[in-house]
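[DERIVE STRUCTURE TOKENS]
===
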Amino acid sequence: MNSYVKVAITGGPSGGKTTLIEALKKELGQRCAIVPEAASILYRGGFPRYKDPQTVVHAQKAIYATQFELEAMISYVSQKSLIVCDRGSLDSAAYWPTSLGSDFFTSMNTTKEKELARYDWVIHLDTAAADDYDSSNPIRTETYQEAWDLNDRIKNAWDGHPRRVVITHNADFLSKMTTSLAVIKAIMAHKSAEEIKKELL
């Protein structure tokens, strides 16, 4: 049995993941360990980025493998009670091209059940409303509509997790971050998904 709780923070582009994780570092400090986003590490390091479906397959294989090893390493060395992952393995399934006829889970030699079981909790942050959409991130290449389509695919990829919390874009951004932090603290207080949804959402 793990001595820590592992949370995947996921969602559509410009959902607030980066802001939330920076807030967690300040708010929780030494009480949590952060698993950085695999895609950002690869792309900022010069990994080629193309839109052709076959090249996307290669990229997602690399991202999945990097994500897997990052999580394994942080889980091994961390003495923290909370491990927060900047995205999770099933995000790659949302980016996986369907036009080639290949299946993500078969290609990765895994199943959806195995991937869901890797995380104790999942927090999905919906893509921001149009007025708040941030296109300044150099790694972000999606238009606003593409971002929302991707948001839905990511949400579908994680469907079935028993402890998933979806935080919508209906409130202003500050309220969204406040709610997200409150959810993390409730998880640390060992509240159930039902309690969190009833009290905070």
